[in-house]
Amino acid sequence: MPAALARSSVTTARADARPVVAWTVSTYPRDRQRVAIPQVEAQLVVRFGPTLPDGVDVHAMGPRTQVHRKFIRGGQRAVIARLRPGTYEAALGISATELQGAPVPLEALWGATHVQRLRERLIDAADTQAAGALLDTAVSSRAARQPTLDTAPAFLSAALEQLQHASLGQVARELGISERHLRRVLHDALGLSPKTYARLTRFAQAVRAAQSAATLNWSTIAADTGYYDQAHLIADFHAIAGATPRRLLEELREHDGEIAGV
Predict the structure, then answer these.
(1) Fewest beta carbons within 10 Å, which of 34, 92, 130, 202?
(2) Around Cβ 137, how many Cβ atoms within 10 Å?
(3) How confident is the model over 24-77, as pLDDT tens digits?
């Protein structure tokens, strides 16, 4: 991997119900352009760098609905923690529907005193992996102190899994609930409509399939990932990435693109 690109590692996603699903650490030795595929989960992002106040900042971010391109100065490191839908209010103090748009400084959600203590511990962490583990523990501890705010129903995980390959109506029938109730639960847990969630997960699946394919066949990828046809896939890539499928793949290869957002 060229030295100008990030070196990342991702923890294995958990089977338990703690707020942090998984976290990624990245190092940016030199200036680079970052290309990030949208995530459907909210995220907590810690950045370390000489140009930041005290060398570190922490912010929360809701799901993005488009590919994000950002220039990053060399010398920065980052921890990106993906949060489990249904735990945002307990973990962050803000609902999924409120966590939209621009990144929110964690001080605005947890208060300056609590975040300053966290920043000091992050600064003292031995390395970025240790900082990720520290962030994970801090988020889990906060959520555990506010269990009444974690009100996601038990069927949420199953519903999110099934929506990746079935319609809202099919999922509602499988779960034995009304479409209206399922739609409301998903919107409250994600801050996204079920349609947008399904669209973004389908897009990410298509990107991953294209990246791993020995020989690119967009018609096959479209069929395998739930698009009506190749034209439908191309239209979605234009809408979400602002580029053709082939051009987006070139960007991801050129800039070491990631399925994450900062």
Answers:
(1) 130
(2) 13
(3) 888 888 888 888 899 899 999 999 988 887 889 999 999 889 998 888 888 889
Band (pLDDT 50/70/90 cuts) for residue 257 is low
The three-class DSSP label of residue 6 is coil
CA–CA separation, 183 and 205 (whole Å): 22
What sections of the chain are H helices per DSSP? 88-92, 107-110, 112-124, 128-144, 156-162, 168-175, 179-190, 194-212, 218-224, 230-241, 245-254
What are the C-alpha distances in Å from 43 to residues 1, 81, 138, 232, 260?
Answer: 26, 5, 14, 29, 9
C-alpha separations of 90 from 4, 94, 100, 146 in Å: 38, 8, 17, 6
The residue written with tokens 């990106």 in the block is 80
pTM, 2 dp? 0.84
Cβ pair 135, 79 in contact under 8 A: yes
List C-alpha distances in Å: 92 to 39, 67, 229.
Answer: 18, 24, 40
User: Would you say 171 and 162 are in contact if contact means Cβ atoms under 8 Å apart?
Assistant: yes
Say how far apart CA 135 and CA 21 lie, in whole Å. Answer: 12
Average pLDDT over residues 64-91: 90
The answer to whether 23 and 64 are in contact (CB under 8 A) is: no
Angle between helices 168-175 and 179-190 in degrees, nearest 10: 110
Counting residues of the chain whose pLDDT is more than 70, the rounded percentage is: 89
For the stretch 9-26, pLDDT in tens is 555 455 567 899 988 888
Which one-letter DSSP state was computed for residue 163? Answer: T
Which has the closest alpha carbon to 192: 214, 160, 239, 146?
Answer: 160
